[in-house]
Write the structure tokens for this entry.
Amino acid sequence: MGDSTQLTDLPIHEFLERLGSSDPVPGGGSAAALAAAMGAALVAMVAELTIGRPAYAEHEEAIRKIRFDAIDRRVELLDLAQQDADAYDVVVRARHLPKETEAEKAARSSALEAAMVDAARIPLRAAVVASEVLDLAERIAPIGNKNAASDAGVAAQLAAAGIRGALLNVRINLPYLAADEPMRASAPVEIARLEALATNGEHAALAAVDARLVAS
Amino acid sequence: MGDSTQLTDLPIHEFLERLGSSDPVPGGGSAAALAAAMGAALVAMVAELTIGRPAYAEHEEAIRKIRFDAIDRRVELLDLAQQDADAYDVVVRARHLPKETEAEKAARSSALEAAMVDAARIPLRAAVVASEVLDLAERIAPIGNKNAASDAGVAAQLAAAGIRGALLNVRINLPYLAADEPMRASAPVEIARLEALATNGEHAALAAVDARLVAS
């Protein structure tokens, strides 16, 4: 990014300007993680608006657990948004290494391969955590405060978009990994698993939200 | 929100804390608009990474136009995120009006109906602008810098989630509109149109991104 500012300390309007600038960092990986972090925050809000209300006392314990987990995922996803930017910064630096001589080419290539491990590993972790947020949204949608049903639905949409967006970032970086890097074999399986979770979780959460919007 | 801070001036980590708090403002409407604003920023970044590169000279003019439009939509969506929070704040205040006497009940009810017009109108506008961002992502995905194909894909995911999330906020508020409010009749038609745009645009954009990820 050209300086050491933490993304998460930036005012939103400034973050959006940097996201849209000609600097490739921050990019889609950070944006996907932040979308899922907003989803986690919305799950926590729905829980807050439910806890302590007599009409929802039956689910109090489950919802306290959901709130706790949602806050945990929000914090991790915010950290992953930063980590993704840092990792991609290392990739950009490796790309700018000299490639005149054979020795320089070899050094640049192995620097890029090393940098790509984090550039693939971090969005893969973000997709996993986003899938946990989607699960929390799916669980709170039918039992949370009915007046916040749309918020549970938005949480599910943002978590699903976060999963799919993070996985695109894994996929674009995989071809640059070293031939013997284990993620080359393991990531495609994990990608397929997480894509299925995104589709199923999104449908289930939105069906629950729809039922409550119609009933209200 | 209890104070007059502009959401968009908040550092990201603080915005996420407020989003997750027991205060219903900001809520899902602001989060959906912000997700689409991140999508618009990513479209602008892909354009920035494409403009001026000889390999993409053929599409230079189209991409300059896409960049211009993406920046415009980013600014409007950020403003809509704030407007949504402000509008819902008015709803919350109306809900807290006294409802002891018949006169108080009538006054509270008409204050709520009036507040709900903005609470439905603003996310409907956000869904329209998010659908324009999705269109921009779909257009840049096949012709933008191939190395940023995943960013165009994340932009499409975030725009689609922004549309659907904003529409959930319209739907939850519609039943509270006055019986003679024109949006009661017009909004369902517009909601169906925008949902179809979200589905079709997302598929088209991701097919274009997939083709470029496989080819790379």
User: Anything to note?
Assistant: Residues 102-140 of chain A form the longest helix (39 residues). Helices of chain A lie at 12-19, 28-48, 60-95, 102-140, 149-173, 183-215. The mean pLDDT of chain A is 95. Chain A touches chain B through 58 residues (CB under 8 Å).
